[in-house]
Queue: 4 jobs
Job 1
Amino acid sequence: MKQIPIIRIIAGILLIITGICAGELPPLNLMPVPAEVTLTGDRYLLDAKFTLTVQGPPSSRLGRYATRFLRRLSGRTGLFFPQDFITPAKVSDSAQFIIKYERLGQIILTEDESYRLTVGKDKIELLAPTDVGAMRGLETLLQLLAADAGSYFFPGCKIKDAPRFPWRGLLIDVSRHFEPVEVIKRNLDGMAAVKLNVLHWHLSDDQGFRVESKVWPKLHALGSDDMFYTQVQIREIIEYAAERGIRIVPEFDVPAHATSWLVGYPELASAPGSYAIERYWGIKDPTMNPVREFTYEFLDKFFQEMAMLFPDEYLHIGGDENNGRHWNANQEIQAFLKAKKLKDNHELQRYFNQQVLKILTKYGKKMIGWDEIFQPGLPQNIVIHSWRGYNFLAEAAQKGYMGILSNGYYIDLIQPAEYHYLVDPIPADSKLTDAQKKLILGGEAASWGEIVTNETIDSRIWPRTAAIAERLWSPACVRDVESMYDRLETISLQLEELELTHIKNYEMMLRRLTGREDVTALRSFVDLVEPVKQYDRHFQGVTYTSYSPYTRIVDAARPESMTARKLRHLVEGYCRTDNRLELDRIQQMLTIWHDNYPPLQSVIASAPVLKEIEPLTLAADELFQYGIETVEYLKTETQPSAKWYEDVAEILRRAKQPAGQVELAVVAPLEQLIQKLRD
Amino acid sequence: MKQIPIIRIIAGILLIITGICAGELPPLNLMPVPAEVTLTGDRYLLDAKFTLTVQGPPSSRLGRYATRFLRRLSGRTGLFFPQDFITPAKVSDSAQFIIKYERLGQIILTEDESYRLTVGKDKIELLAPTDVGAMRGLETLLQLLAADAGSYFFPGCKIKDAPRFPWRGLLIDVSRHFEPVEVIKRNLDGMAAVKLNVLHWHLSDDQGFRVESKVWPKLHALGSDDMFYTQVQIREIIEYAAERGIRIVPEFDVPAHATSWLVGYPELASAPGSYAIERYWGIKDPTMNPVREFTYEFLDKFFQEMAMLFPDEYLHIGGDENNGRHWNANQEIQAFLKAKKLKDNHELQRYFNQQVLKILTKYGKKMIGWDEIFQPGLPQNIVIHSWRGYNFLAEAAQKGYMGILSNGYYIDLIQPAEYHYLVDPIPADSKLTDAQKKLILGGEAASWGEIVTNETIDSRIWPRTAAIAERLWSPACVRDVESMYDRLETISLQLEELELTHIKNYEMMLRRLTGREDVTALRSFVDLVEPVKQYDRHFQGVTYTSYSPYTRIVDAARPESMTARKLRHLVEGYCRTDNRLELDRIQQMLTIWHDNYPPLQSVIASAPVLKEIEPLTLAADELFQYGIETVEYLKTETQPSAKWYEDVAEILRRAKQPAGQVELAVVAPLEQLIQKLRD
């Protein structure tokens, strides 16, 4: 829908690419970039006569997908297409868009997701071995939609595509903050749009047990504050995901991260109860008792129930971050250690895991768990989920074990998209053999839920997760950060049509904070800040609980300031080229921000909740003034006094201090500009 | 949260009002306005030590309501309150805010919803006979929240409040367009915020049957395109509504408006099948057969099932708009008419209704239906729902029948809030006796669903429905339109915290149409337009179906342009006072709009879907130019030529033509300004 690519298409009409790694990226807003793209220079003009047909073994699933495709196309273009619902019964040979597939795909790790898409002048054809592959191709076609002044069209092309990795996931933690059914559904739609295929559902932790259990009903009844999914809802979501070619891998974290289990069943615990649902964050002591028979009887019944509820062949048992305190303090456990000649708690946890593995195997499930579960002697169908990093995965692969990566993909750490984008599950310098590389199945973006609510979760997941999705689908050579950001901007807008709130909740949250509909002045400033990074938010004098307000500026602010990025580009451009035009544009930006100071102060003066950012607005404004002066000095090729440099150093120091747990994202480029002046 | 009221509170510190009708409205953002408000001049300063307690017979329902109250307060203020979940077990006498109630309210028509709220300097007290009344009071307190530069506070006051009418409803039509569970839930939250207490759920019509039926499963299986509520979901929503003191009255429209029933059960029909789900809008021919025994056997089983599913004592049978065509064409039906000596189709429908009434009575339900069901001999516990108007209700009341009003409250007709606001179920000049007036139970805003999707429904319902809610709750004397609009602006923002999308989907839709994140230029124009009124949208050459795109400018545009309202005020002010300052502000507005023309054209040139509004943007811009000239002539007290007046008349004519089914809302005030020049 953006103009730029079209112009580039026209200019690049004779550009032929076969195999993405052979040449430059095609000028198309595709994310993830397909394995092979050939542009033909043709155009398929889209009008209100557009029809499609689905050919293959009857799949109402694909019919519904194609129907949604039509609605989204219609929604963007305002075209009144003649078709209502695409059903297996309504097959036509005269449709302009023909979707053909050979068999119904299974929603399993190894399924074929490849497709071929040909956009001709009068005809579009999508071929795939499975209906799941056809779904992937439909998303590609939607991304291809372009426009000129007169009409909408699809650029003529031949695309041959298949994923690099078979496990491309998103972890959503619904324990720390519960996320209602519709939040999960719209994120499944977002995942499908960027070809992710695994929802890793972190369903239990210290702060909440989120699934209805019929065999152990006190789990959800006492462990969830009444915020849990019924089994009917779980099935509904599994079905919803399957309709989009997405697996659901449930995680029940054991033996630690389990306070919420112990509220209803304190007899599971290693220390005497009673237990209450945890309200604070961090690694907690409560841990299941690994030496009592009851624990395994309990888990046997529990996993039997969950194995029936969740159809995926994998079940995630967590297994991470057991601090061992309650084990150390329990004499029965210590006696067991001695009796069984177990060296330490790690060996005891191995013992525990082996029992759990037996249970899972009994109920037909394969085990996946965090790094900590890895131990010699495990069957080779388990999967190691690494929060520690590639080296750990490589080590496991060398021993013949499969793994997936989440280290580098923790999106709750509020890092820029490019940071995640450049993390590769198999780095270019990997020493693994090809066979070993095959054991690295992919990765998962991880949206941990401590500081995320249903209002903010979409903006924490999107659009950055689309960059991770590209890493996991596209050929490894696709690493052009600038191209990624260009395309991400468009994809982010398209994700809105799936009801994702990552853009629209931004101003909504600012409206609530100010009590005003017009948030121009406040937004102009918040566009320049980012939440503090990593886990810093928990170490700045604010103690968060599960029921704290996650509605402040730090929660509204986007993880990555695109305005700061733009300034950085201008400054870098100027430093490289000494181009005066760039200096003019920098000056223009700084002047706008500086002029915004009085209206911004007036907003802050009327909303006490904004007081916390006041020091930063002041420091920022002083920095903008010095920035404007810097531009003047550079233009006039004069030097300020030594005193000026002293003053600016002090201002930079102050502008680097976070306030209200946000930091000013434009400090670094301005510092660079000042450095340029000094040089 | 707005500054203005606070200033007004300070200024009006000694203002004492007892009984709203005795004086001017209190300077508070309350909607609906309570029956009695006394301002004390005190302030309760809100800080992070704020706690509350609930005293009364254990009600986890009210505990949950109070918990949500705390979260909303915390969300707006960023204050970290110490309480997690309010449960009946946790009662304290030392809380600053004490909620006391006497008994659990029933979710029925006649329940007591009154409350008394006292905000003192150090203490807040909410007293109510029922927990439902306490819920109403909690919403009032949330609306009282105000702020100055330093802190949040509640203005000291004594409020004594109770509703004027016991039936204050919102009709949501989920047949024409299905609305997912979360849409219903967030609208129930919005209803509770403005003290509405009935969701009238229009669950079946020609275009879709939306409830799972276990006794007649082909109803939902073949009549819904797989878009229906399961019985589990229905129960979940009924429970959700009850938790907010809201009744749910289901409507199953019979014998007409019933095509979707006939898809699965053509044997119910008056004309031979087969039937398909209706895709077009309007009054359709398919009608149930009123002379076959099967019809009543079917309805008996069906209503038995629905009577069990829906706990409310009322069940709405529709009964409207039977065009009689299929009855006329059916010989069996005609023979029945003769045999039973029924004069016409109206008498036949009476016969049908009597059979249905017998069924409802058998299953313990009272009947409500549209005007058409009214007939002599019906029991007096039925309710007439009038789409025709007050006169019809008055006639029924004189005969001893109860009624509710929807005429004047059809919010799908895209009228301004003030239009609905001034419609009273019992007009001031009513000739009814007091006893007869009591039979008029209230009214319902009606959100018919033809041109409404889950993306746009909130913006069609809110904020205008809040004005109707005030009409139905507040004393009849509360009719100050300016005050209503002032308060509506604030209430509208507060409704966003309930996840309603009426504000945030506006720019989202513009982003989709343009494919750009920055929609400033387009929004500046769309702020000035409104969708065409009444049912005009269906008579302008566009044929809509249930699957047409409802994503165009006409769908994004708000029902009521607040910018146009502002211009109208300025022009009226100037015409009244000849104040030059107002002329300056008019000129400023016109200049901004005129300057917006080039960027607007550039947006339109890149998005073919916007082409349809191009003629209106052109006419508007010419009008703005003439408007600027008008201001100049007025300022210089000179007169333009006769030719100028001819030209401007032509431009006004063109600016009045809708384009893309929107109309320019600023034409009338500009015409008034030109008239002022002429005079």
Note: Residues 3-161 of chain B form a domain with the Chitobiase; domain 2 fold (CATH 3.30.379.10).
Job 2
Amino acid sequence: MVKSFPDLNPTPRILMGPGPSNVHPRVLRAMATPVIGHLDPEFLGIMNDTRDLLKFVFQTKNTFTIAVSATGSAGMETCLVNLIEPGEEVVICVNGVFGERMSDIVGRCGGKLIRVDAPWGRIIAPADLKKTLATCKPKLVALVHAETSTGAWQPIEEISKIVHEAGALLVLDTVTSLGGVPVTLDAWGVDACYSGTQKCLSCPPGLSPVSFNDRAMQAVRARKTKVQSWYLDMTMVERYWGEERFYHHTAPISMIYALREALKIVYEEGLDARFARHMANHRALVAGLHAMGMRMFAQEGHRLPMLNTVWIPEGVDDLKVRKFLLAEHNIELGGGLGAVKGKIWRVGLMGESSTKNNVLLFLGALERAFKAQGYTKLTAGAGVAAAIAAY
Amino acid sequence: MVKSFPDLNPTPRILMGPGPSNVHPRVLRAMATPVIGHLDPEFLGIMNDTRDLLKFVFQTKNTFTIAVSATGSAGMETCLVNLIEPGEEVVICVNGVFGERMSDIVGRCGGKLIRVDAPWGRIIAPADLKKTLATCKPKLVALVHAETSTGAWQPIEEISKIVHEAGALLVLDTVTSLGGVPVTLDAWGVDACYSGTQKCLSCPPGLSPVSFNDRAMQAVRARKTKVQSWYLDMTMVERYWGEERFYHHTAPISMIYALREALKIVYEEGLDARFARHMANHRALVAGLHAMGMRMFAQEGHRLPMLNTVWIPEGVDDLKVRKFLLAEHNIELGGGLGAVKGKIWRVGLMGESSTKNNVLLFLGALERAFKAQGYTKLTAGAGVAAAIAAY
């Protein structure tokens, strides 16, 4: 042999970045289950369970609730390519990386893009959307529930009302929110929604949960042109996941095993308990960061509990701290993207990573990292003490 | 709880259909490895190993050799959406389901489709392609190396010469062939190629190995329009897998673990030994089927060793046999697709499923299934005896 490839043996990490989050051993074991055929009657039962569990976490009765056989970004593309036809007006709300990405995809669909912008870290103001909708007649309005790049937590109810009054479909990105804060598709009237598996569901990346209601599916079926993606064409994927089991592509068997197990864990914990856990750990983390003299980045009152954005203190080097945390503590911390690269950190407390242990450990390790850089504006132990007091 | 979801516990199967094939325990264990961040330096090393191993199985030096984060069908779409711009002429060779699928995608890209057809089960005749290329000036010609729906094994060298003489790019589907018969991208001059993981690589489904040579990448970079798929846009995926590590999407970490391990197993066995094993088991299977009075479906001299298509004998019921094999022997056998549904079976001997044990067991179990239906035109034990003699 020319080259030798060592055994797979990555260092175990504490995942506190923007995702993936840590995966429960039950989910890891599920992936080691022997692979069976994707049209095996037993696998069809596993797909059905997965659908039922996805409906539960999405809080929806939508028949068309499935896992797209690719990662969260493909879920975004799925919603947009199925619902947009060339020449149609589309409103995208942009307050971070993922709104930008949706805008890019609209162009690739030949849609006529109309943007509603808000500064990074802030939510989209319903009044701004309303003003825009008075000037156009879009097929759909898309926005991000939990902006992973900024930590902003968008309220949906008023937005949904405005969108539907304008006769448009509402498309929602719940990649980072699903399983961490309430996502209630039916109550909110969301028409099409996509998510990811590697955030608050604590499943490895590889699938994208997607749900379309009847209105959205009717819009897909009423298209005059074919969906531009064969792989993501929901009229065919529907027949594969549905009663017909019409062969489309080969489902990623082991990833479906993993998703089913991860969703079972969510189901067993219960949504309310899970949301409360995420919120309690968020509050303790923020108390700790404040006590260390740091300021949060996202708009007050609209901060995501699972994705905490914080300004990097002056005199502290972004990369040095992140490398220190990884090398010394095996902690992965997220850096900023785009305009806030080097200026903020993104502290993930998602799914299995949202624990008291991680909060206390992170604050302690961060204090060490600051000290290692000679940063002196800290009261020793203040961060951890404030977090303990917050529980 | 409203509903209870039982533990994941699918019955172990012997996978002898058109894929997935059986997965080695080493690969299953690799998937149970704790997930780390997709931009973690250790994961970047794992991605690099995976690239090196993919270059090995593809027999190529192409820098742009990666695993698309979705299944084989998405690999097909990747090659076509990156290389076709609206209005461009495209020649697709169609002799089965996957040529049909490529034709469908060409339409979705706005390409001008020109077909070269051959009957199902037969290969594309180079002379037919030559005739077509005299009448058009296509950007690319695409064809299938191993037609999973028919079992036909397409020779590539002469086709490649004809395609390049016409100034076109050659796109090749190696979903079922890679790792089972020689696939030599550089020697053949293939410009863009895609494959799947769940066939002769014996990795679970979920990724699509793809390789573009410089000529193909230049064609992508020279586009006047954006690639219609954001997720599959190789100009961005290239920056993610390349030195820059520019964030595009989150790679399916656990699936990459699995692919790296599956490719390591191929590397350790060696390509020649692996191809010889596939061929020996194919010959024994065919000897057995012939001895049982059955006829092969695919064109003689062009039969794939890993995907054996055989006519269902008159008086034998397709579904009854397949259900018997699954219920009594836990063997998954593949049925026919499209025009040959109910008329042929597809016996997979792919990767880990290509063993002497599976050949002997399958022939014995098939004899039992025939007997259970009251089928009398058999000499008892003839199939197994012929296979034994063939080794």
Note: Chain B has two domains: 25-268, 271-390.
Job 3
Amino acid sequence: MRGLRRTPVEVTLVDRQNYHLFQPLAYQVATGSLSASEIASPLRAVFKRQKNVRVLLAEAIGVDLAAHTLEVGSLPNGDEGSTLAYDTLVVATGSRYSYFGHEDWRTHAPELKSLPGALDIRARILRAFEAAEVETDPAKRAAWLTFVVVGAGPTGVETAGQIAELARDALPRDFRSADTQQTRVLLVETADRVLGAFTPKLSSKAFHSLQTLGVTPLVGHTVVDITAASVSVQNAAGAVEEIPARTAIWAAGVTTASFARVLADAAGVETDRAGRVTVQPDLRLAGHPDVFALGDMVRVGEKVLPGVAPVAMQQGRYVARVIAGNEARPFNYKDKGNLATIGRSRAVAEVGPIRASGFPAWVLWLGVHLVYLIGFQNRLLVLLRWLFSFATHGRGARLITPR
Amino acid sequence: MRGLRRTPVEVTLVDRQNYHLFQPLAYQVATGSLSASEIASPLRAVFKRQKNVRVLLAEAIGVDLAAHTLEVGSLPNGDEGSTLAYDTLVVATGSRYSYFGHEDWRTHAPELKSLPGALDIRARILRAFEAAEVETDPAKRAAWLTFVVVGAGPTGVETAGQIAELARDALPRDFRSADTQQTRVLLVETADRVLGAFTPKLSSKAFHSLQTLGVTPLVGHTVVDITAASVSVQNAAGAVEEIPARTAIWAAGVTTASFARVLADAAGVETDRAGRVTVQPDLRLAGHPDVFALGDMVRVGEKVLPGVAPVAMQQGRYVARVIAGNEARPFNYKDKGNLATIGRSRAVAEVGPIRASGFPAWVLWLGVHLVYLIGFQNRLLVLLRWLFSFATHGRGARLITPR
């Protein structure tokens, strides 16, 4: 979109939310480190100066590829949805976590992907400590102090690490009856190691960092049931254990947002198991040269790229160049590396030939995330919050806001 | 509460919310200048170091003055409510705005007093501009761009001024179809002047500042009806006008929160029309020397003090001294003055013999509000937001978050 600022085109950005969420930091909202507006920028503010962009606050619900029109749901003024004509359509509706067919688990284990999800999780985590404070039955109290994070990708690892730090460093002096140091944080992962996208050596370092922080990584374990009061996991040998836990957070699996299905059906193109729409090497839909799709909702031919921000950003810039007529080659992903933080001063990084862990990786993580956060104001506010947290072990944004 | 930190007592703070809201800045959340967590401090963080304070996240719902017990509603762990024994009870449950018997207006004109209220109003204001952007009918678009603020006390004046600035300075370049400069902000006040607590001369200055900002103050007008699409006002001569407006904000009247009624009934003491509980000169309930009540939920004998933060703060410190045995005189309010801001560089101030307006009053307003905002971190974050807003005319926290 911003890549089109000097191209003589008119762009309409359709989004059902009025902000761009910097998703890699959503877990910090969920754990009370950051405030929602510090990681979300109003779309209109982002495109204030780009006069060829209009923003429409609406949800895309249908597409007619033959008529070259996009159908959107109800408009902000309450009017029924309308139809937008396009010359070129670019679809980037992203993905959600997948509950592996157990949609009923969503109620007990919200996903950490959207801002409402992060605020919901924040309220649940904080309420669990409040509940532990008033609970007198030791077994019940232990269940309130048990947190299960499902999925040990970067989001799961970061969330588990932050909850452990919250319980160990930020909260102990806040409570009088509950001993938050008794908190158990379990990180459940089906694969045999955490951070599967990293080298086994860095995975192993992350595993030990998690343990040092007080997180119990349950690798080789699969979630088989989630209720309001427990999470049941099955180990590789098939044994099932029911863990009493009042708080579960979901960060596993991946499936595309619903519009991917709409698009694939309209175009008659294939999707994979995760619902990814197949696109051509230039990110166009086969048979529809005026339609591009990108990000973690697509696979390029048979190739699935990592579902991370750098892929989507490079693809966005690529499509902007194609539209402007400045690009004839197929899309080629330049892997800049992988970063994940585990907690205060702990991170792992793979950048080109460099493998780093501990403090240097953590500083790199901080820098990269600050650079990519949109808006100078947000960068400064987040930096300030981080400095405070680092200095005081505190968490400034610990509000239970109403659902 | 903090006045009791060196007194050998055990304090239980019962609150249904886990944060202390700095209410004087709630309107800045409603208008997108500040983020919720910047004006709300987690109670547990506030009392972290004060070991004689326990925080209980629950709602007070009943009291048995003979048995010296307080009844609270459901607990965070889901248990049914319980009963707390007390030696001394201090009640400070505050007030709400009153809809003058028209509770149905609340749906269309939310009150600006709580954090959920402020977030709701923020979403409504931002959605109204989004609606104006897609609306093609000129009359309907005008109704989306018309905002009615009811009540010209400090909150009403500040809110009206901020909406006008938002429309005039922050938003014009954000929209492509709607001309936000066409926004009308009406400030309806039954009395014959704005900011009735100030001297007539400062009222008049505030009136003209509002006009300069683009606000239309309708003094001597009373709201007689509010619907989803209009606000009807009646002037002193009795003529009724129906103003097409899609957004209304309520900041008028005053009534105590429901626990004041519970307490007055239990004690058999009188309340006034606004529901204020009558207390004795030492803020005790007549016949119940172990029960204090304070803040804008009480009147001291027949005397109603202004419903502002300094009164409640002085009363809180007074009660702490009485409990500690360090105070024998009746409560005496020291009026430190009145402050209200109208917009960027515009405010009015009455401090002792000083009457100020314009830039000096505004700087004073900024300083006082920063000093009283709880928490060093929040002060810096708010200062930073304000510097940005001042420099760029922008508003950083413009998220429409889900209800």
Note: The radius of gyration of chain B is 22 Å.
Job 4
Amino acid sequence: MMARTGTAREKILDAALKLVRAKGFSATSVDDLCAEAGVTKGAFFHHFASKEALGVAAAEHWSTLTTKLFAGAPYHLVADPLERLLAYLQFRRDILRGELAEFTCLVGTMVQEVYAEHPAIGAACQASISGHAATLEPDIAAAMRARGWEPDGSGTGWSAASLALHTQAVLQGAFILAKAKGGPAIAEESVDHLSRYIRMLFGSLQTRPTN
Amino acid sequence: MMARTGTAREKILDAALKLVRAKGFSATSVDDLCAEAGVTKGAFFHHFASKEALGVAAAEHWSTLTTKLFAGAPYHLVADPLERLLAYLQFRRDILRGELAEFTCLVGTMVQEVYAEHPAIGAACQASISGHAATLEPDIAAAMRARGWEPDGSGTGWSAASLALHTQAVLQGAFILAKAKGGPAIAEESVDHLSRYIRMLFGSLQTRPTN
């Protein structure tokens, strides 16, 4: 999966994405990163002042890559805002493929470990998660307005921002259960529960089974 | 919070609960654990053959402690199975208090990092998460049967087991967002979304706001 092209900096960042998702930030040493990237320790410290600086840059690199991935995904072609949000969740479900280290989240993994010890990395992870959640807010807000609801949550008790972040909480938790269970099936079920919640929330699904 | 009484083994396990929740498993060294527990390295290796063995024992210790905590919690006094499940979620929401390292989950934190490198720890974390989820299944199954639904999911498309695990996915993801955001507020909102989902799923809440 890893591109061996690119600058030394890019190679180190790609190595961080691979190794940190496989074994966490703390267990990934600078030596591991250099070996995986095929660069010298001198090159590493030319580009990154410290392992912490690499962690911050890796979170930013992750944001750049995932922003591109989601911007180019087919769910944007769906016309209706609610259906577009549900197509986003279907896309998230569809990409739960391959090895756990390939489909789980770099920034969720890093912030889990380093939130207290490396606040700078934690802040970069928070920016990545919240930035991605924010891309969902306009569609949620539009779907709310189409039903005469205020996106700030007055009347409904939940806001567009809150629901957008909840989708990310479910995905992050689904990754943890996938790691615990050794595969994506359990994560798919959580995405299905989330999609069912959103359909019910917007009133487009019966709450009782038909049989 | 940490009890300084108990055997050396218990002190080491309590130290692991504190340190791993604060900085992760990999960043917690045997020296850190000995210093926190006030025991010698000789005592550590008398009780645990390796740091991995300590990780497995810490997950099992966590299961024992949390099983006691939840077994003694007031939600069991609620008579109706659905309301008891919702009271459980309210209890989970109520205990999102204090420092992040005090209310987040040891086994979710460990499995996030070590699932690939230490499968024995991953298995102990999986047993802890699934064992806790299983305590919710009888109430979900009873609430389903009371509505004429099959707990195995035929007809509904979701089973009691699947919903029980989904509650744990939401909680685990909520912990990650709490760590990213530096406090429990976002986790409370995710628990509220989950409670709203479950009420709607069982048909006891309107899907549209009343205003």
Note: Chain A has one domain: 51-201.
